[in-house]
C-alpha cells in the first residue's frame, strides 16, 4: 500500500493519522507502537506522537498491511479494510480508495476500549462494523 505513494500523499497520511489518534485520546500526546518504517518516517517529526518499543506501553498500535497482530491487546489503527473488518482490536482504519483517503471507526470496538471519537471525525464512527 505505502510503496506507491508520493510525498504529498505521505503528508496527508501524517495529518490524517495524527487527527485519528488525537480524536480518540484524552491526552495531548499519544504513544504508539508500530514496526512499520513508513509509519515511523511520516509520524516521527510530530510533537504530539511518541513511539514506544513495547506495545504494552503504547496507547495505540498501528499495523501496516504486512504486519500481524502480536497478541497485543491495545486498540489498533490498521490500513486495510479487510484487516479492520476481521480484527477485534481494530478501532479504526485508514486507506486510500480511488485516490481519496477513507477512514472509519468501529463504534463497537471503541466502546470495548472505553474510547470515543471526538470532534470533526466523529461522523466517521460506524455502528455497523
Strand content: 15-25%
Q: Which stretches are poorly predicted, pLDDT < 50 over at least 5 residues?
A: 1-7
Total number of beta strands: 7
Assign an overall shape. globular
Rg over C-alpha atoms, rounded to the nearest angstrom: 13 Å
In helices, the fraction of residues equals 25-40%
Kindly identify the CATH topology.
Answer: Rossmann fold
How would you state the average pLDDT, rounded?
A: 89
Order of helices and strands: HEHEEEHEEHE
Individual helix count: 4
How many domains? The number is 1
User: What's the CATH class label?
Assistant: Alpha Beta
Largest sheet: 7 strands, mixed
From the helix content, strand content and strand pairing, which structural class follows?
A: alpha/beta
Write up this protein.
With 129 residues, this protein is α/β, with parallel strands linked by helices. The chain has 4 helices and 7 strands. It has one domain: 3-Layer(aba) Sandwich (Rossmann fold), CATH 3.40.50. A 7-stranded mixed beta sheet has the order 2-1-3-4-5-6-7. Helix 4 (107-112) links the parallel strand 6 (100-106) and strand 7 (125-126).
Q: Can I get a quick summary?
A:
The protein is built from four helices and seven strands; from the N terminus they run H-E-H-E-E-E-H-E-E-H-E. With 129 residues, it is α/β, with parallel strands linked by helices.
Amino acid at each position: 500500500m505505502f510503496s506507491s505513494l508520493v510525498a504529498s500523499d505521505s503528508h496527508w497520511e501524517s495529518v490524517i493519522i495524527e487527527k485519528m489518534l488525537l480524536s480518540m485520546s484524552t491526552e495531548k500526546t499519544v504513544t504508539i507502537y508500530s514496526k512499520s518504517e513508513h509509519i515511523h518516517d511520516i509520524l516521527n517529526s510530530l510533537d504530539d506522537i511518541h513511539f514506544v518499543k513495547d506495545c504494552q506501553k503504547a496507547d495505540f498500535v498501528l499495523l501496516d498491511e504486512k504486519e500481524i497482530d502480536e497478541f497485543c491487546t491495545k486498540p489498533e489503527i490498521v490500513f486495510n479494510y479487510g484487516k479492520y473488518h476481521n480484527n477485534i482490536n481494530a478501532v479504526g482504519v485508514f486507506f486510500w480508495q480511488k485516490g481519496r483517503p477513507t477512514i472509519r471507526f468501529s463504534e463497537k470496538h471503541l466502546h470495548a476500549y472505553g474510547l470515543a471519537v471526538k470532534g470533526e471525525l466523529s461522523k466517521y464512527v460506524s455502528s455497523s462494523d
